[in-house]
Amino acid sequence: VLQRDVIGTVRSIVSVCRASGQRRQDLRKVIVEGNSSGRWAGKLPDGGDKLPLYQLLRDCETRWSSTFLMIERLLLLYPVRVSPTPEFRHLSNNDPNIFRRFEPSS
Question: What is the pLDDT of residue 106?
Answer without folding.
Answer: 45
